[in-house]
Amino acid sequence: MTSKQLIDQYEFSVYAKRDVVIVKGSGAKVWDDNGKEYVDCVAGIGVASVGHANPAVVKAISEQAAKLITCPVTMYNDTRAKFLEKLMSVAPKNLKRAFLTNSGTEAIEGAIKFARFTTKKTDFISAMKSFHGRTLGALSATFKKEYREDFMPLVPGFEFVPYNNFEKLVEKVSDKTAGIILEVIQGEGGVNIGDKEYFLKVRELCNEKNIILIIDEIQTGFCRTGKFFASNHFNLEADIMCVAKAIAGGIPMGAILCSEKIEPPMGKHGTTFGGNPLACSAGIAAIDFMIDNKLDQQAEEKGKYFQEKIEKMELSKVREFRRKGLMIGIELKEKPQPYVQALMERGVIPATAGVTVLRLLPPLVISYEEIDFVLEQLEAVLK
After folding, report:
1. Looking at residue 248, what DSSP letter applies?
2. Which domains does the chain have, with CATH numbers?
3. Beta 29-32 vs 22-26: how paired, if at all?
4. Which residue, 349, 367, 369, 371, is CA-closest to 358?
5. What are the strands, taking DSSP E only, across the chain?
6. Burial of 201 (C-beta count, 10 Å sphere; 0-12/13-18/19+)
7. What pLDDT score was predicted for residue 209?
8. pTM
9. What's the pLDDT score for residue 360?
10. Are the beta carbons of 349 and 39 closer than 8 angstroms?
């Protein structure tokens, strides 16, 4: 049986799949089982920022796997210690400690619990068009009704307000509000970019009302937006920052970064695989690569190059172009699915977001030659 047949037979699938079997990757390129080459502008949904099969990450994983793969967090571990030091060295300076997880949605779940435990309050406010994950707590903070409605009732106490609208947010704040959960740039919602003044007002509000500000940097973190974190664009200080995706070069990992305001719920939260030595070794290598190769600077320079080129094209099917670093949203005048297929046929793998947005999240190591190739295919398909 073929790979497609085996997956169709045995996988409990919850996704519609594209008709391709990816078997190999290197840098910003992947190859299918027929040998066809693609420039990957999905990158595991923003995961492979340091490139597929990054040699430094591969070496670190291989060496760590031969030494020690797992170690519970009830014991100290040398690799976890080195990773925590590395992670906190690039984090916003007000964040002092980290709880390590296996994914972004798990980080959001923990953040919800930490906020409730710290404030002794119950309720949360999130934004319309937000996406924070699919487990029950994270899903309760996620706006899209198609993700939510079949799993009701969700965790009580969550409300949604328009993004970038401070007045509407203030109206929803009550004495029960434990936390406000926001993305600096909404990824799944359509690459919607936050307003600096809005976020700084939210920060002040949280200070005044004893509310925990939870910033979701799961997709925007680790150089994607032209800064190490999107919060850096605003000098925004979160009480809790949730990160994952690009943190460990493709190995499943996440983290909840906490300020000194957050109280640890001793004996009331935990993880089996979070902070395992294998993931930590990959995380050290990935962050070192980001620093050594100035991937934040590369993301901004390459994103600017992309924008300057595409804005010179007369693309009749495009309504709006949005970008921060190499986080790119191309809003179309219709649904993007036919254009996804057309780009796939031309050797480019795009993502989607919102209802009408083509989303591009290429590895930050993408070459200018590869960017030009992507632009050529976009022009051919969208003109």
Report:
1. G
2. 3-53+294-382 (3.90.1150.10), 56-292 (3.40.640.10)
3. antiparallel
4. 349
5. 22-26, 29-32, 37-40, 95-101, 123-127, 158-161, 177-183, 185-186, 192-193, 212-216, 240-243, 254-259, 318-324, 327-332, 348-349, 351-353, 357-360
6. middle
7. 98
8. 0.97
9. 98
10. yes
